[in-house]
Description:
This protein is of the alpha+beta class. 61% of the residues lie in helices and 15% in strands. The chain is built from 8 helices and 6 strands, in the order βββαββααβααααα. Strands 1-2-4-3 form a 4-stranded mixed beta sheet. Strands 5-6 form a two-stranded antiparallel sheet. Helix 6 runs antiparallel to helix 7. The relative contact order is 0.14.
Amino acid sequence: MIKSMTGFGKSVCELPAKRITIEIKSLNSKQLDINTRIPNLYREKELSMRNIISQTLQRGKVDVTFYVESMIPDKIPQVNEEVISAYHNQLKSVADKLNIGDSTDYLRIIMPLPDTMKTMPAELDEEEWKAVSSSLSEAIEQLDNFRIQEGNSMQADVRERCENIATLLEQITPFETQRTEKIKNRIKENLSDFSNNGADENRFEQELIYYLEKLDISEEKVRLKNHINYFYETMEEDGPVGKKLGFITQEMGREINTLGSKANDSDIQHIVVKMKDDLEKIKEQILNIL
Length: 290
């Protein structure tokens, strides 16, 4: 089954004090490339997230984004009692030495001083992570379903173009007989130019065999047909097949190019051009196949 590497998935995780929207999208890439934009609170679970993603998506440029709407901030400033106490002791000592008295509002003086407030990072609750992880899996599933739908359309397109190439290949056969006669007549005319008494039959047969062997395209036709059949079989395999299909199209391209170079016939070359056009469109599609 063919899957596209392009896809999009979205899920919403509702928690008691926050709402997290998870969006995940993917584009084509030679390997799996995961980029995350997540709050610091979930950074400790990034490796787990990557493992969850890689198990399903396998290949592509994947972007994961968390949008958090929270009623309580992850980082809440707290009074740093130890620092305030140290400031107070120092100020009181100075006040005693200067006989200022106890009427001084030490707190108002101390609070603007450095490090009187400290921010403690929030810790990720395991129950919250379970909910977020489940929501992430839901977004991945949506994206994978998107890929399957896109893949079905792509499979229909590349199959149709493969069938076009196979049909064009069959259209070459009638022109092969005509091509043989053209070559035979051309060689005979060339040999006649060098002989006043007509062409030497032995020489003629030798030249004819040489050119027919040199320009024979039967092996290329057989190999191209086999590659097309292998392409069909590969499309039905489970798992990622994009790279394998790419290798097969390279082999198809070699055979089609050889057909064109050995054809020595305008009608066959016109057919080869049409084959190349369909093959290029197949290659474009394969770039986005998982």
